[in-house]
Task: structure prediction
Amino acid sequence: EIVLTQSPGTLSLSPGERATLSCRASQSVSGSYLAWYQQKPGQAPSLLIYGASNRATGIPDRFSGSGSGTDFILTISRLEPEDFAVYYCQQYGSSPRTFGQGTKLEIK
Amino acid sequence: QVQLVQSGADLKKPGASVRVSCKASGYTFTKYIIHWVRQAPGQRLEWMGWINAGDGNTRYSQKFQGRVTITRDTSANTAYMELSSLRSEDTAVYFCARDSLSLMDVWGQGTTVTVSS
Result:
């Protein structure tokens, strides 16, 4: 099973700042089948990025993803108040599908 | 609009079983796979298995093999997840999610299952 490790565990930033979240896989993610999800308190996760770098429908362009192999990055270029949430990476290239432990993005 | 609506919270005793339902609307139920994912307190999201709503084929995570059963009722556009031999560590929020091109693109609202004596 592929283990995903996200860093940092918590990121404290102010609105307008740039956020960089990391996701490292224990082995290469097949076909860059890596997704990012956002989860707000009391809600289900929602899809942000798929295929490592493709924005899901309706996702603003301040969200971008990059990376391949074992190292992936989610960047939020200018933080809006609604972006403060928990972010999870997920690999869907091999079974079982696995998730990272999450990065909590909090307001500084 | 595309929606997955899950059954309400449940409290179970250790050793019991729980069944959570996931009713789909706004799309053709039988054309998609439904996943089940759980989130225990303070833990990462954990994939449990999926069902092809069209042909009923299933695949389970090895961790839950033997304890989880995922079924569907096409006449009711509903998928079900049953977890047996419950223990306290199964206390979690359980989500269903639709699979679109291998992505979990639509999620249910989640169902809290509490296992306590």
Q: What stands out?
A: The CA atoms of residues 63 and 76 of chain A lie 5 Å apart.
